[in-house]
């Protein structure tokens, strides 16, 4: 019984770590995409797009 509790606790801990790491990776990716969009919009403002 004690071994099954330790095993369950270990599995839950590993799953929690995986979820936290996945969240951190997704946050970094979204931040990078936002930065790319901002720099693209700043570059686009330099050129007139009225005739497009």
Automatic annotation (TrEMBL):
<dbReference type="InterPro" id="IPR038641">
    <property type="entry name" value="Csa_sf"/>
</dbReference>
<keyword id="KW-0812">Transmembrane</keyword>
<keyword id="KW-0472">Membrane</keyword>
<protein>
    <submittedName>
        <fullName>Csa1 family protein</fullName>
    </submittedName>
</protein>
<feature type="transmembrane region" description="Helical">
    <location>
        <begin position="7"/>
        <end position="26"/>
    </location>
</feature>
<keyword id="KW-1133">Transmembrane helix</keyword>
